[in-house]
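ok, trying the design again with the full structure, not the truncated one.
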């Protein structure tokens, strides 16, 4: 009788200790995972702020964070890889986990080589949002470069001879080509 009671108590204590240790280990793994996710997202955010073109850096960080073979941004009509880190590149959306991005044109993130667990979906979505920002930054930078080039061409273009314009009040001085005072000038033909 005494041995049976001691055995039951011993088993109950062992099960309780085992459960507590298992919960502690699981929470420790979750904390480490959360820390790694936070560090990866912080690095990606730093790339968005500090890099001239953060897209390749963010794709590589995404690929390494999820241990994927390839992280690629693709368009689907026609299927085109716009940017990628790792390889081999996907040839269709079915080649991996596809996450649509919130961009002006239909762009999708495709991760190949590994499935994504349900716990990873939140972090993957955060990376996708950062990639959307990187694409928007790239587009805005391209538009700014084009606008600057247009402005340079406009400034370099020959200006018309505006000698036919005279200052109102009869002064014979020519108005500068960029003056806002054209509105108060009258047009008179020079002979």
């Amino acid at each position: 009788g005494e041995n049976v009671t001691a055995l039951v108590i011993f088993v109950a204590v062992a099960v309780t200790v085992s459960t507590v240790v298992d919960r502690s280990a699981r929470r420790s793994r979750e904390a480490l995972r959360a820390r790694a996710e936070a560090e990866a997202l912080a690095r990606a955010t730093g790339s968005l702020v500090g890099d001239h073109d953060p897209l390749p850096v963010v794709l590589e960080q995404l690929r390494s964070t999820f241990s994927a073979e390839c992280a690629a941004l693709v368009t689907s009509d026609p299927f085109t890889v716009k940017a990628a880190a790792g390889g081999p590149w996907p040839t269709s959306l079915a080649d991996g986990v596809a996450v649509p991005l919130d961009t002006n044109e239909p762009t999708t993130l495709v991760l190949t080589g590994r499935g994504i667990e349900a716990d990873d979906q939140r972090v993957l979505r955060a990376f996708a949002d950062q990639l959307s920002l990187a694409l928007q930054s790239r587009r805005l930078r391209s538009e700014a470069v084009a606008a600057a080039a247009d402005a340079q061409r406009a400034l370099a273009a020959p200006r018309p001879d505006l000698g036919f314009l005279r200052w109102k009040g009869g002064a014979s001085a020519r108005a500068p080509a960029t003056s806002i005072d054209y509105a108060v000038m009258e047009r008179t033909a020079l002979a």
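Keeping the full-length input from now on. Residues 70 and 87 are 5 Å apart (CA to CA).
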